[in-house]
Amino acid sequence: MSANATLTIALSKGRIFEQILPLLAAADIYPLDNPDTSRKLILPTNQADVNLLIVRASDVPTYVQYGAADVGVAGKDVLLEHGGVGLYEPLDLGIARCRLMVAGQPDALAAAHIGRLRVATKYVRSAERYFAARGQQVEIIKLYGSMELAPLVGLADLIVDLVESGNTLKANGLVPLELICHISSRVIVNKAAWKMKHNRVMDLINILRQTVSTDSFD
Ligand code: ATP
Ligand code: MG
Q1: Is the dihedral of CA 116, 118, 124, 130 positive or negative?
Q2: Is 46 helix (H, G, I), strand (E, B) or coil?
Q3: How far, in Å, CA of 155 to CA of 159, rounded?
Q4: For residues 177 and 158, what is the distance between their CA atoms, to the nearest angstrom?
Q5: Which residues contact 186 (CB under 8 A, 6 or more apart)?
Q6: How far apart are CA 67 and CA 63, in angstroms?
Q7: Quick one: which of 45, 107, 133, 160 could link to 127 by a disulfide (CB 3.0–4.6 Å)?
Q8: Which residues are CB-contacts of 133 (< 8 A; sequence separation ≥ 6)?
Q9: What share of the chain is helix, strand, coil (3-state, %, to 5)?
Q10: CB 120 within 8 A of CB 157
């Protein structure tokens, strides 16, 4: 990589961090701290001019949009909510895969209903878009987590949430009802960094792209 500027990469802890590590290793980037044990939010790497920022998953696009990070890795769910202003989304990494789904009690859609269905979700924009496209009038209730609780206590008829195995739904007596879209994590790039640090950013993306496409033949 041509070294004339630092490269700052925004990531979230947890599954994205764990799943990106082997991809960063392919680009010869190794964090010098473990975000689970270190309290540092700026993690230095073996490359003096590459830093990782550890931020909330839903904040990754914001850091990249404003150029506080040049590059980020964020779930498509988060990008759909953010809207993508100020960002390019050049690469699907195929990691942290899951599905954005409508879920509820097994009879949620069959039950005769007076008034609008209430839908509890953290994914307000995606839920609004999905139901609007189907011409269904619903009332969206914004939650920040534990969506599975809402139908159990009469807060909502349905939820819109990420589903991987379905075990969390099942444990709460809920079932997946409709698929909204498949989700995976994407590389995002600040629009100014895309121009100003083009070679740097493209070198990283090209290595990641090769690694991802090789992995898919395993
Ligand atoms: P925070 O807790 O910081 O508000 P979060 O709960 O969305 O954010 P994570 O649970 O680490 O953070 O999820 C990060 C990303 O991983 C999500 O945006 C989504 O793209 C993906 N993801 C979330 N849940 C699953 C899942 N069950 N299986 C696979 N990928 C998932
Ligand atoms: Mg979480």
Answers
A1: negative
A2: coil
A3: 10
A4: 9
A5: 73, 74, 75, 76, 79, 89, 91, 92, 93
A6: 6
A7: 160
A8: none
A9: 35, 30, 40
A10: no
Token pair recorded at residue 126:
């995606």
Sign of CA dihedral 134, 136, 137, 143: negative
For the chain, list the domains and their CATH numbers.
7-96+184-214 (3.40.190.10), 98-181 (3.40.190.10)
Q: What is the mean pLDDT of each run of 10 residues along the chain (218 residues)?
A: 77 96 97 92 97 98 98 98 97 98 93 83 98 96 97 97 97 98 98 97 98 74
Q: Ligand 1, residues 19, 36, 78, 98: which to mutate, most atoms within 8 A of Cβ?
A: 98
Give the predicted TM-score (pTM) of the model. 0.94
The CA distance from 216 to 212, in Å, is: 6
- Measured in Å, residue 74 CA sits from the centre of ligand 1 at 9
Let me know: does 70 contact 9? Beta carbons within 8 Å: yes
Mutation test residue for ligand 1: of 12, 62, 79, the one with most atoms within 8 Å of CB: 12
What pLDDT does residue 132 have? 97
